[in-house]
Amino acid sequence: MDKKLAMSLALGVVLGMLDLSSTPRRALAASPCAHAKFATKLVAEACKSGGQDEAKEKMKAWVKGAKEKDPKLVLTCNSCHSSLAPTFELKPDGLKQFFALGGA
Ligand code: HEC
Predict the structure, then answer these.
(1) I want to staple 80 with a disulfide (CB 3.0 to 4.6 A). Which of 7, 85, 94, 101 is the partner?
(2) Same domain assignment for residues 25 and 8
(3) pTM, whole model, 2 decimals?
């Protein structure tokens, strides 16, 4: 790695640490959701309160719950999303699937 790059990386780390100590943890931890408009309460609320991390946790829990309700159900993140992090684009029927499985 060349020196300049190493320096700027090191500087980035230091600045990141400074930022950590001066910003409330919550605001830092929360990288915002990729979308600005939401059709579901689950994701809209999660994005609002804890950003994309929270949305991810909520979705994971929701998928788990849906599978517990129907053990035969084959459901992965890719069932509804055409891409995962960082954009989590939906397949054309992603929303429909979500509502059909009782999501809100
Ligand atoms: C049954 C369909 C379905 C499954 C399965 C699913 N999702 Fe989602 N997901 C959605 C829908 C629909 C939205 C958008 C909700 C909205 O518009 O309010 C979404 C939104 C998200 C978002 C917010 C995206 C943003 O704007 O940043 C994340 C993160 C996410 N899902 C993660 C996951 C993860 C991780 C999994 C697997 C554990 C998963 N999803 C499985 C339907 C699904």
Answers:
(1) 94
(2) yes
(3) 0.81
What is the full DSSP assignment across 15-29?
A: HHHHHHHHS-HHHHH
Indicate if 82 and 42 belong to the same structural domain: yes
The CA distance from 100 to 104, in Å, is 10
Q: Which atom of ligand 1 is nearest to the CA of 64?
A: 38
Question: What's the gap in Å between 16 CA and the centre of ligand 1?
Answer: 29
* pLDDT one digit per residue (tens) for the chain, 104 residues: 677 766 666 655 555 554 544 444 455 667 999 999 999 999 999 999 999 999 999 999 999 999 999 999 999 999 999 999 999 999 999 999 999 999 99
| Residue 44 and residue 77 share a domain | yes
Same domain, 86 and 75: yes
> Residues enclosing ligand 1, CB less than 6 A?
33-35, 38-40, 43-44, 52, 55-56, 59-60, 63, 75, 77, 79-81, 88, 90, 94-95, 97-98, 101
